[in-house]
Input
Amino acid sequence: MPDPTDPDLCYYTSQNGNLNKKNIRTGETRFIQPSSEAGESPIRTSWFTPWFISKHNPTSLYYGANKVYHSIDRGDNWFRLSPDLCYSEDPFRKSRAMTALAESPVKSGLLYAGTEKGALWVSRDDGINWIEISNDLPIKAVCCIMPSVHEEGRVYLAMRALDEDDYKPYLYISENKGVNWKSISRGLPVDRVNYILEDPVMQDLIYIGTDRGVFVSANRGNTWTSLSATLPTASVQKLAWAGDNGFLVAATHGLSLFTLFAEPVRRFYKSIAPGEAGFLALKSGKLPAQKDFQGDLNWLTSADSEVYWYQPTAGSMVIILTDQKDKEIFSTRFEAETGINRWSWNHVISFKEDTGLYPMPEIKFPAPGDYLLTIQGQGTIVKADLNIR
Output
């Protein structure tokens, strides 16, 4: 994890909470895992030990073992912030270590901690006092706590069974800092939930990563829709935002990273009436530059144009590009599916192979400028203005 303000510094961890920080410029690495204070038993950690950099102070680190530890100097020094939170009043919730730790992005010092057996705690004063808020929650491992970026009192919670033949989703929301919890897993398949992420633009829009994909809800968990049509079946362990919150990133266990352009999803839930087709988003592209005097193209300088729209009925569509004089420049067919569709174009109007001694294919592109893109078929007509650079 890169330091938010120091470009030379990054943090990394391995199993059981072995936390290190490294200076990328000098190569210096330092082991910064906290240790127990004098006279105390050694700290206990889980396989996935939670820790994070505070969004309110880039030098402030929090670390969850069986106790919460806090550093205000990037891990050089630590002090204990809590008692042993693995000793719940409920004997069935006693466990070895924490599995989740989070701070509200809205309120500094509003902390949540969860353990392997479902003991859940909140501190509203940066660790001075801790209150157990497990209430009627199941005795399952707390795998994700996601305080809201929109409301101070709102927090989401995901739990899952460890070492049990139980694959049901355990997903909850609280609007009062954990005093009361409401289940929001209705409608989800039998599939463990690993991570929750709130949309930073639309507060009712939330995403979850499960052992088989990604789901989205436009009403804070009352109903769910799969976002995994083009995502390989894999365990999605974490979700994050990138590119000024424009791209949803899904980190899988074993199949690398995948990104989703989020604007079409937001516009669909914001402006498309049920059963109606509609334009969602467009990314204008860029033509490739010439690489040398012979006219070779440097495709690395290009960017495809992309259009997103909602299609209520699957079927063949015609995509037409016209110029400012309503002259057709390019057309093609596209097999649309029911739901959100994406069409990507590299701006090639025609391509002719060259079979000469020094082959140079003939590629025709549209001139840079403004165009109208029309998508029609299956009773649908969608139009969008396209600028090609």
